[in-house]
Amino acid sequence: MTDANVFSPSSPLGDALVILGAAGVVIPLFARFRVTPVIGFILVGLLVGPYGLGRQVFDHPWLAFVTITDPDSLKPFAEFGIVLLLFNVGLELSFDRLWAMRRQVFGLGALELTGAAALIGFTLALIGESSAGALGLGLALAMSSTALVLPIAGTTTPVGRAALAMLLFEDLALVPTIFLLGALAPHNGGGWQALLHTLGLGVALVTVLLVGGRYLLPPLFAQAARTKSPELFLATSLIVVITAALATAGVGLSPIVGALIAGLLIGETPYHGEVEGMTAPFKGLALGVFLITIGMSIDLAMVARHWVMIVAATAGVVVVKALVTGIMLRVMGTRAGTAAEAGILMSSPSESTLIVLTAASGAALIQPSTVQFWQIVTALGLTITPGLAWLGRRLARKVDAGNAAPLPDTPDSDEPRAIIIGFGRVGRLVADMLRHHGKGYIAVDSNPDLITGALSAGYHATFGDAASGHTLERLGLDQAHAVILTMDEPVIAQRLVRKLRAAHPDLAIIARARDATHAAALYKAGASMAVPETLESSLQLSEAVLVDLGVPMGFVIASIHEKRDEFREQIMAEGGLTEKPSLKSATLRERSAAE
């Protein structure tokens, strides 16, 4: 065997195997515990990078097989992950939706970026940073992470829509920011002229992409679809993304602008769903590579030496950005809970921060040691972003609970009524049926968006956390004739049933169950009736397909009864019941067949 055929752990193939192995461990492990894999990828980068186990390679050569020997070689793949992320964001948008968001993008987005940058820069200037350096650091640290915020918040929730508007403006402002820093560089000639030249070319190119793509992409994807070749369809999608990204990069704009435009254009075609499904795995893997590179940039030795300053700097950036973003959202009319959650979620630095820091360093506006310090702060901020998201959700619930509107008066307010806990699609249907038959009810949910929509639709609902005793007491639990639990949270539902039964032995408690096992647990906790949703839907689907296949109706109904009776016996045994529970009232057709 020649030396050329010998596998080397320091080769790009060795690094690729480490990345794939990390993805194979992190994604299922963190999914098992319902934790975002973002933290896992960053921790893996910290572990296998040059500041982790990489330090011990010379003493223990075998570690070369599980470490990254050349972190810089991964950066192109990490940047490609960001490109694919923005492409998928474009797929989820449309030109109509983007036009409808113009006030938020260029109003809210501009206010948030300039406000945070000005406050951070002013603070740094006060502690001794030069004015140009303070401006560069302020603009860098004011940017938030598209790669982390959008997967956490989505683009359809109120928090996600607000974050998307601000992040879109930051992405659009990235290139002008870099050129602005270049224009401020000492002994720089023609900086402003270069900026204007690039912006002119960029506007022309974007126009060409928008016009040309609208006419060229539909027939292009139609032709690829006619071949019925998934490989060709995927190749066409990647070619469009890469071409648009390279075109914008070629005129001096960021490649993510081209990727976003490509996503918008494909999103207007009938093929956007198929394209999104095919490119999602590539986006996830490339995004994982980016997060691993973030973890590899954290020097634990430097953190240990300057941990007080690093923690203080990180906390300062988070607090300033959270306050500025929250205040700007409130000024724009956003609800207090949404403003608080979005402000905290957007408060950490971003991957764009690293790009702007590099540009400021190249323009000699800040020293290399300063760059390294703020790179560690940025990496730490990205690491705690999922924790900030959790904190933001908790704070938003408390803020909305404090601002909850009083219950609307109804004629039956003094009469016994049902309490519906959880007001999603199931809770609404229960409320519709109660209202149709003239029965009083009050619904409660801890999701402020669901309650806002319910109140606007005329439902009798209020915000609250039913797990806390005072909420149900406020709703008149002592006068309630029934409590219906519709939330899709098995553990919380069991605890709540047990708590309600202990306090009210005679109360009717009807609970939604996922399956027969969950129904048995609810009966054991004290539920009067537990309805397994998957059981009945499965039996009805089975009935429909058997009838369509020509099985006589009598045989089908008999087999459905047998299967339902098996589940009743299972629930009775596991739930400790003295008799089989009634899972379902007989339908008219079943009654007719029985007669």
Looking at this protein, list some descriptive labels:
mainly alpha, 595 residues, 26 helices
How do the helices and strands line up, and which of them pair or pack?
Layout (H helix, E strand, L loop, with lengths): L11 H21 L4 H12 L26 H18 L2 H6 L1 H25 L4 H11 L4 H8 L4 H26 L7 H36 L3 H21 L4 H13 L4 H25 L3 H6 L1 H25 L4 H10 L5 H12 L5 H16 L1 H18 L15 E4 L3 H12 L4 E5 L2 H9 L4 E3 L5 H6 L7 E4 L4 H14 L4 E6 L2 H10 L3 E4 H16 L4 H23 L12 H7 L1
Parallel strand pairs: 1-2, 1-4, 2-3, 4-5, 5-6
Helix pairs in contact: 1-2, 2-12, 3-11, 3-12, 5-6, 5-8, 5-14, 6-16, 7-8, 8-9, 8-15, 8-16, 9-10, 9-11, 10-11, 14-15, 14-17, 15-18, 16-17, 22-23, 23-25, 24-25
Give a structural overview:
- This protein has about 600 residues and is mainly alpha-helical.
- The protein has 26 helices and six strands.
- It has a six-stranded parallel β-sheet, sandwiched between helices.
- Helix 23 links the parallel strand 5 and strand 6.
- Helix 1 runs antiparallel to helix 2, helix 8 packs across helix 15 and helix 24 packs antiparallel against helix 25.
- The longest helix is centred in the middle third of the chain and has 36 residues.
- The C terminus is likely disordered.
